[in-house]
Amino acid sequence: MKTQRILRLLMACCTVTPVVASLDAEPVPAAPRPFFSTGNPILSDGSYYTADPAPLSHDGKLYLHVGRDEPELYQGGFVMNEYAVLSTENPSSGNWTLHPRNLAPGEVFSWATGKKAFAGHCLRGKDGRFYWYVPVEAKDGALRMAIGVAVSDSPLGPWKDPIGKPLVTWNDVFGESDRGQEVIDPHTFIDEDGKVYLYWGSWGVARVVELSATMTEKAGEIRTMQGLDSFFEAPWVVKRHGVYHMVYDWKRGGSQWTPSNYQACIGHATAASPAGPWTFREIILSGTSATTVHPSIIEQGGKWWVTYHTRDAKDGGHFRRSVAIDEMKWDGDRILPVTPTRARPPEFNLTNNLARDAKASVSFAEQPPTTIAALHDGRVTSVRLPPDQWGNYRGNTNTVESDWIRYDWDMPVRIEGAGIMFHQDPNWTRPPARWTMEYMDDKGAWQAVRGATYPTEPDRWHDLKFEPVTTRALRAIIHGQKNDSHFHSVLVSEFEVHGVQVKELPVIEVPMKNGSPELPPRIDLEFPGAGMLPVKLLWRKLPAGNGEFVAEARAIGQAAAYIRARLRNE
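User: That's the sequence. What structure does it adopt?
Assistant: Structure tokens below.
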């Protein structure tokens, strides 16, 4: 398969020694930690990575029961050994509390290894207690992942195992025509008639089973649900105005929403009964950064919210995810499209990397699963999957020796260096035999940059300097390693271009006319050795109101500070 040719990640996991508690034990959760969030991701400083949010509204508070991602920075594969809770009285306030290590599977379930604490769901049962359904690794390898249920008098624990065994196991579905699908991503729904339904699903198969009134045993046959277009995993069901709504992780490689199977978005389907059949409606959220989204929706404080996860926290990655939340609105039975928000939109991050603002082109790309956009998306410090790289794979009999990566700017830029990361896989991808950089001079001719060295070692970041030049275009020419009469393909996860820094950024005065400022799209700055050059400005959104304001803009390629403009009504 194409994706296997591009990259094979080593799915290494940390080894832990499970601590097994008796069924009567009540492990005490770790101390809570209040914090203030300025937006998405909710917890973004990289101190604690949270994934797979499952919201619960109770006594005026919103609780998000989440898993914890714990891999090392460049580690490929899920390392998840515990669950946590995020809580707030108002998602719009920014005031949250982290309740870390709220449930440790190895301490609560005697049958669990304590590893692979995947996506779960907590809800309040008909008896007033709280039931947390969690898919964890069973000690009995034949059971693989199994869904356990933990019970508490509080949404924050402490938690007990009321049945001393898994509720659903691999053996419950093994032997079907679609066997081999892991028992993960449980969601539980209590209908208006009091019936309880447990949903789960992965790798294209969505299942449901009715539970007994105790909520701790199956009361019917396991059914495979129909009508869920491009279902991947993570079903979540609510009922509104007599209609059942499901949101789920939607994937279809080659679609406009998911060009490859390493990308994800949120699909919406409706049904007249809790088990379907379902009718697909539309995609309600796309454009997130992680390979999965694990969606859920809930009403809280008179508003509807959608929760999901991204890799947008500090040093985040596909296996170091962080929970996000956005307001969601309805139009009848339709969920209106949701635009994922960021506390700090990346286009306003200060950086000397001019590649972020360039138009990228290449001589050849295998798309999908690799993407040209990955070359200048600003992501360096995370484990990569194929959409996070540009690749020139043409097959194992490729006779093309070199390809180029090119950046173009709409006005001249002053540059003095670059950064790049190459990769290799166990198959046909190797670091380049050699590579060089060229800039376009003011006559439109390509010239070699001077003073640069060109490292090729894979899987590490390379910074290099060269003599400053002013240009509108830069290209890297990459030569593949030869194998007999053929050439190996190359993978690049990021190619930066570093701008020369000016000595001082001015504060400018901008008059307000009829309540609107005329913010300049560019400004002339003085560059050492080059004199005055125009620099493009990206302005932040202005606050509403009257009076005197200070506006901020990022001058592309300048990392020291923002350009500031004093705005005054006249």
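The first helix runs from residue 2 to 6.
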